[in-house]
């Protein structure tokens, strides 16, 4: 009986977890189904509004969760809208006031990430006032507000005030023995790189353990993406050098630091620094695994950007050889990316050979999505090389295997339309057609099959003409389609 009781409790707990709309939305996100994830949250929010009204703490929490889903699909403007609504919900007790402070704190951070630093600073100054009233200046909760405001001031290129706030936050968090002290340390380090005269950056890490260095590295990965690469590359180099200093316990974080240097050096067009960082990473990771494949591909791309075609081809070849022993889509994906790189470097025949091999491997291993990408990559490359035989069949196969609104699928539609019209290649008109077709199919499948009469895509945005008056829920979903279309267009593969 006891065993049965525990089993029933376990099953009920599992059912409750599965029924949590936010958990369901996160599961959809993990599968790449962004529209489904957002739709779950929108339905959940509407259900709460109908039962509890829009002045309830549960409504505010659901809006905050919706914001996290929108951040995951890189819809910062949509996340800002949801967070503003969450902050506006009245707070009736201490727990709700604490949540409201958290929602506003996140609003400031997302505004900054959306390129709206001036608005973010206003929000975060207000948040700091609220934190002082709620926690007091000596509480760690006050320092959380300080170091995030310092971060945004650094993004806005106001290092003097940022340094003062970051120093105060670091001292507070150290006194209160909070792990977030290392986030404040990261902020202080990048701010110090902007000061004149420049104090030694990251000096606060001198007595830190390896875990602290790793935490700082993780914070820097996010922070250094908030300004142009040429501006933030010196801070990445300073942190990398601190990691590699004799006796420093930060060598465990050095790999992350070198990856940051390589990434920012690419954006800053510093090919020498990019190659140095990648070569260090290869020496530190000699294993013949998926990471080794990725590093050799990255090195090939870096050699190509530097104009060294011989070393580019050699690195690609090494990556493909290493990928032979890897499971899943590693070999096909590596061959596909290497083929595109070779093609773009001017070796069209070599690139086509790799792309054909990529498709062969994907089919042999029964990898549906990778087969679709390989079909489209090969077909587009054949079109560019003025080879028309088999192109339409490859494109039809490819678009049929990929998710709706996937950027590779839209590219395939564009080239398929060009082939159908005998244009030999895609152009602006077929690109618009491809987006329109993909969006119309997406709406028919995910909202209502009888709703759309026509879709028109232009640089100014997406216009949807309906066959009837949409329901309020349908209108909400239609308004969100353009965001998901744009998100798919910029997603990297």
Quick structural overview:
This protein has 493 residues and is an all-alpha fold. It has helices spanning 2-19, 21-30, 34-52, 57-72, 76-88, 94-113, 117-135, 140-155, 159-175, 181-192, 210-223, 229-243, 251-267, 271-284, 290-305, 309-323, 330-344, 348-364, 368-384, 391-401, 407-420, 428-446, 472-490; strands spanning 452-458, 461-466.
Task: State the helical fraction.
Answer: over 70%
Listing every helix as H and every strand as E from the N terminus to the C terminus, the arrangement reads HHHHHHHHHHHHHHHHHHHHHHEEH
The total beta strand count reads 2
Structural class: mainly alpha
Distance between the termini: 53 Å
Number of helices: 23
Low-confidence stretches: 1-18
* Biggest sheet, spatial arrangement of strands: 1-2
- The radius of gyration over CA amounts to 26 Å
């Amino acid at each position: 009986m006891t065993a049965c009781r525990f089993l029933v409790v376990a099953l009920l707990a599992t059912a409750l977890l599965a029924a949590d709309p936010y958990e369901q939305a996160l599961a959809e996100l993990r599968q790449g189904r962004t529209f489904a994830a957002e739709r779950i949250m929108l339905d959940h929010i509407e259900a709460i509004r109908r039962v509890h009204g829009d002045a309830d703490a549960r409504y505010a929490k659901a809006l905050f969760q919706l914001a996290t889903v929108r951040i995951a699909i890189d819809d910062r403007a949509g996340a800002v809208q949801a967070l503003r609504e969450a902050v506006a919900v009245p707070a009736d007790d201490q727990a709700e006031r604490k949540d409201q402070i958290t929602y506003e704190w996140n609003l400031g951070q997302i505004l900054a990430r959306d390129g709206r630093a001036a608005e973010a600073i206003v929000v975060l100054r207000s948040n700091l006032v609220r934190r002082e009233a709620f926690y007091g200046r000596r509480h760690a909760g006050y320092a959380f507000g300080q170091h995030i405001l310092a971060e945004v001031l650094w993004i806005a290129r106001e290092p003097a005030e940022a340094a003062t706030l970051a120093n105060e936050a670091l001292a507070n968090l150290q006194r209160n023995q909070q792990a977030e002290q290392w986030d404040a340390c990261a902020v202080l380090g990048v701010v110090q790189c902007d000061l004149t005269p420049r104090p030694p950056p990251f000096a606060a890490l001198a007595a830190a353990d390896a875990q602290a260095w790793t935490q700082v590295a993780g914070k820097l990965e996010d922070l250094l993406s908030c300004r142009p690469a040429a501006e933030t590359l010196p801070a990445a180099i300073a942190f990398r050098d601190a990691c590699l200093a004799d006796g420093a316990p930060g060598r465990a974080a050095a790999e992350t630091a070198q990856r940051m240097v390589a990434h920012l050096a690419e954006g800053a067009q510093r090919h020498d620094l990019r190659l140095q960082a990648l070569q260090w990473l290869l020496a530190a990771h000699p294993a013949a695994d998926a990471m080794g494949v990725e590093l050799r591909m990255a090195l090939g791309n870096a050699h190509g950007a530097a104009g060294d075609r011989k070393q580019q081809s050699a690195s690609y070849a090494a990556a493909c050889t290493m990928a032979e022993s890897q499971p899943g889509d590693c070999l096909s994906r590596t061959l596909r990316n290497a083929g595109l790189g070779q093609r773009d470097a001017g070796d069209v025949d070599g690139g086509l050979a790799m792309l054909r091999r990529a498709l062969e491997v994907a089919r042999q291993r029964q990898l549906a999505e990778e087969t679709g990408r390989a079909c489209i990559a090969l077909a587009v490359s054949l079109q560019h090389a003025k080879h028309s035989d088999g192109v339409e069949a490859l494109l039809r196969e490819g678009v049929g295997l990929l998710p709706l609104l996937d950027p590779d699928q839209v590219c395939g539609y564009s080239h398929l339309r060009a082939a159908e019209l005998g244009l030999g290649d895609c152009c602006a008109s077929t690109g618009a057609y491809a987006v329109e077709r993909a969006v119309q199919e997406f709406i028919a499948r995910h909202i209502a099959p009888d709703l759309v009469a026509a879709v028109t895509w232009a640089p100014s945005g997406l216009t949807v003409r309906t066959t009837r008056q949409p329901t309020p829920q349908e209108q909400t979903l239609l308004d969100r389609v353009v965001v998901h279309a744009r998100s798919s267009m910029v997603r990297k593969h």
